[in-house]
Structures are given as C-alpha cells and as structure tokens.
C-alpha cells in the first residue's frame, strides 16, 4: 500500500505549494510511484479525508484554524510543516507587534468588524510536528530529501549550521564588507546561500540554527560599526515569533 499524502493550506501566500508543483524530473516520477496524493486543492478537485502524511503550509492566524489543524493532526500519522509560515510563523507574525484590533484596522479599515484574527504562530505552537521543510519558499531539493527520508523511515539530514558556511563555500564576498547587514551568521543553512549568491543578503527565512552564536553576530556588528537594532529590524521579518516568545 502506498502512503496517502495530503497538502493543506492555512494562512500564507500558497507559494510553498506552488513551489512543490515545480518538482520535476525522474525523481518526481519515482516519488509519484511511491505515494498517492489524495488531497491537494491547488491541483486536484478530488479530496479524501483518509491520509497518512499531511503537508501543512501557512501559519495559524485565526481561531477557527486551530480545530482544523488539530483534526488533521489526529488523522495523519506524519505532519510536515512546509515553508517559513508553517515552520517559524514567518511574515504573518509581523502583525504580532501591534494589537489584533490595530492589525485588523490596518488591513481592513472600516470593514475590520467583519473579520477575526489572533496573534500569528507556527503550526508547532498548536500541534506536534514531525518534519520541517524550511524556507520561503522551500528549496525543492530539500522537499524531496525530506519525503525520501520519510519513506525510508529515516530522519532527513538538515544542516544545523549557519548560512555563512554555505556562503563562504560559494566564494561570496561578505555583504557586511559592502555596508549591508545579513542574518546569515544565525540562520540555518540548507539553501546554499541563494540570496547572497544573487547579490542580496540573508533575511533569515529558514529560521535560527539550534544554538545561534549570538556573540559572533555581535562581534560582526562591532567590527562594522553597526548596532543590534539595525539587525533586529531584519530579524523581525521572518522570526518575530521566535523573538516575542523567547
Ligand atoms: S513560507 Fe513564504 S512562500 Fe510559503 S506560504 Fe509563507 S510567505 Fe508564502
Ligand atoms: S554574513 Fe551573510 S554575506 Fe556574510 S558570510 Fe555570512 S551569509 Fe555570507
Ligand atoms: S539566504 Fe537566508 S533568506 Fe535567502 S533563502 Fe537562505 S535562509 Fe532564506
């Protein structure tokens, strides 16, 4: 019996699911031979409530999403957080910096009374999560790696060292040398420093490494005459939930 796989979306832009649709090549054919996809709103109309593996995209931002997520957890043998919103709360948590009344007013104006909202959170703040596919959106190779490991009953090997390692291996000149700031020293690698390779800096979309070397980041800031506040503003984009719950 092939395991049955379902994809579900909560609050997010659905970019992670779109990215999953970009999987291609022989590996995908192998994958489709190994699993049955029974629920994926973006690509199919059929829906089955009997599934083994649930991919969850998006963070939890409304009260009604909590029982829905719990029901999925009760049904699925394995729950996988897909993307930054689901794994770490992501950009949705920016609203946690203001009151929920203010957040509704900013977004919906005088129609705010028709909507409800709660402070945004990652899915592991509500249910147990078995695997994480990080990033905004995730790297498709990592998505495949996690699925393969799952099918083999193994833990996927996800880097637990900073983006700087991959950035240096790619031969980049550090953006601090160019007067920019970067969250690479405390962000979990696995993306091959794709943003720095493209001339930008790391925004921290893969979340913090388990034991971030804050002292090292402080040393870098001192070396370049920068303040922690300059970095915290960047940190908030994806990692507000980690910041407000620490
Ligand atoms: S992690 Fe990024 S791409 Fe995925 S749903 Fe959230 S905002 Fe969209
Ligand atoms: S701080 Fe950013 S640019 Fe500098 S090495 Fe680390 S990841 Fe690369
Ligand atoms: S470099 Fe940083 S922001 Fe860019 S994909 Fe990697 S972790 Fe995300």
Summarize the structure.
With 246 residues, the protein is of the alpha/beta class. Helices cover 37% and strands 10% of the residues. It has helices spanning 15-21, 26-34, 65-75, 84-88, 100-108, 140-151, 163-169, 194-197, 214-223, 228-245, and strands spanning 4-9, 36-40, 53-57, 78-82, 131-133.
Which key features would you list for this structure?
binds iron/sulfur cluster; 246 residues; five-stranded parallel sheet; single chain; 10% strand; alpha/beta
Terminus-to-terminus distance = 43 Å
Q: What class do helices, strands and sheet pairing give? A: alpha/beta
Number of helices: 10
The proportion of strand residues reads: 5-15%
Molecular structure report:
The structure is a single chain. The protein contains ten helices and five strands, in the order E-H-H-E-E-H-E-H-H-E-H-H-H-H-H. The chain has helices at 15-21, 26-34, 65-75, 84-88, 100-108, 140-151, 163-169, 194-197, 214-223, 228-245, and strands at residues 4-9, 36-40, 53-57, 78-82, 131-133. The chain has a five-stranded parallel β-sheet. Helix 2 packs parallel to helix 6. The chain is globular. It starts with a strand and ends with a helix. The model has no long low-confidence stretch (mean pLDDT 92). The structure holds iron/sulfur cluster (3 copies). The site of one iron/sulfur cluster (SF4) has 15 residues, from helix 7.
Blueprint (SSEs and pairs):
Elements: E1 4-9, H1 15-21, H2 26-34, E2 36-40, E3 53-57, H3 65-75, E4 78-82, H4 84-88, H5 100-108, E5 131-133, H6 140-151, H7 163-169, H8 194-197, H9 214-223, H10 228-245
Parallel strand pairs: 1-2, 1-3, 3-4, 4-5
């Amino acid at each position: 019996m092939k395991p049955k796989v379902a994809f579900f979306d909560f609050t997010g832009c659905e970019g992670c699911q779109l990215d999953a649709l970009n999987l291609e090549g022989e590996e995908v054919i192998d994958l489709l031979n190994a699993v049955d996809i029974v629920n994926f709103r973006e690509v199919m109309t059929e829906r089955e409530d009997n599934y083994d593996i649930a991919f969850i995209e998006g963070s939890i931002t409304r009260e009604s999403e909590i029982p829905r997520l719990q029901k999925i957890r009760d049904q699925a043998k394995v729950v996988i957080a897909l993307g930054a919103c689901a794994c770490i709360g992501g950009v949705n948590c920016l609203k946690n910096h203001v009151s929920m009344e203010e957040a509704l007013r900013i977004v919906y104006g005088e129609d705010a009374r028709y909507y409800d909202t709660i402070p945004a959170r990652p899915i592991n703040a509500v249910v147990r999560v078995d695997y994480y596919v990080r990033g905004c959106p995730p790297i498709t190779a990592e998505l495949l790696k996690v699925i393969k490991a799952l099918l083999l009953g193994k833990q996927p090997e996800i880097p637990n060292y900073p983006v700087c390692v991959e950035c240096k291996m790619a031969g980049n000149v550090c953006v601090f040398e160019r007067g920019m700031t970067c969250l690479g020293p405390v962000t979990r690698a696995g993306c091959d420093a794709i943003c720095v390779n493209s001339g930008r800096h790391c925004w921290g979309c893969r979340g913090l490494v388990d034991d971030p070397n804050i002292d090292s980041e402080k040393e870098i800031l001192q070396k370049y005459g920068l303040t922690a506040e300059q970095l915290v503003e960047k940190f908030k984009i994806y990692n507000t939930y980690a910041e407000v719950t620490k």
